[in-house]
Amino acid sequence: MSLIERASDSRALAHRPHSLFAGLAALRAALARFTKNRSAIRYMADMDDALLKDIGLTRTDVEQAYISSIREDPMVDLKRAACNRSQRMVI
Fold first, then answer.
1. Which residues does the UniProt record annotate as the domain YjiS-like (predicted)?
2. Could you say which of 11, 26, 37, 60 is the most buried, measured as most Cβ atoms within 10 Å of its Cβ?
3. Domain span at residue 53?
4. Residue 37 belongs to some domain of the structure
């Protein structure tokens, strides 16, 4: 094994624990974001239709966001729906 190979192996070993902790931190942040988003969607589901209309959403938008996949961020879809609706309202 040459000196260069040994140096690259030791660098790879040095980065593994850091990558593991970074991965766990990212997973924790994703779970926190998921929980926060689901809580916000549940809150929006309790709003009446007039309040949802005021923020540019419909009941269907909220229901679709609630049943979205875990891998998707439902807030992105809600923001997009609200922006699209607001752009249609501007004359």
1. 27-63
2. 37
3. 20-89
4. yes
